[in-house]
Amino acid sequence: MSAEMDALVASATQKLAALEAALHGLQQVRGRFTTEDGAVGVEVNSDGALVGLSLSEAVTALPPAEVGQLIIWACRQAAEHAGTQRSKVVATLNESFVPLGQEPGATKAGGPDSA
After folding, report:
1. Tell me, what DSSP letter sits at residue 89?
2. Beta-bridge partner residues of 33
């Protein structure tokens, strides 16, 4: 029984460590995008919220509505990058919670693929 309890504690500890790593990873996620001409640069966090904005002098020659559209477009691009990073963090977390023997491609004893 002690070996079972040790295995259970080790599994729980491993899953807690994976969860803490994922939380830390999500806090580190940043999406960044700068327009080709460098006029607009943005940074978003893992939720897609704008946390940084830089505008070059070139935006002063553009109509305000166009600058607004450039900012929104750049935010969308940065949010896509952040979403990709966030998906990788969550996928790594999910992999750590797959029970042994149930990994993708694994077959269960007595299942249709068993001999």
Report:
1. H
2. 42
Model pTM score: 0.73
Torsion, Cα 19 21 26 31, to 10 degrees, reads -150
pLDDT in tens, 50-91: 999 999 999 999 999 999 999 999 999 999 999 999 999 999
Residue with tokens 């580190």: 28
Cβ atoms < 10 Å from Cβ of 68: 11
Q: Which tokens belong to 49? A: 């919220």
Q: Which amino acid is at 25?
A: G
Helix then strand then coil, in percent of the chain rounded to 5, is 55, 15, 30
Element (H, E) at 50: strand 50-55
Q: Which residue type occupies 15?
A: K
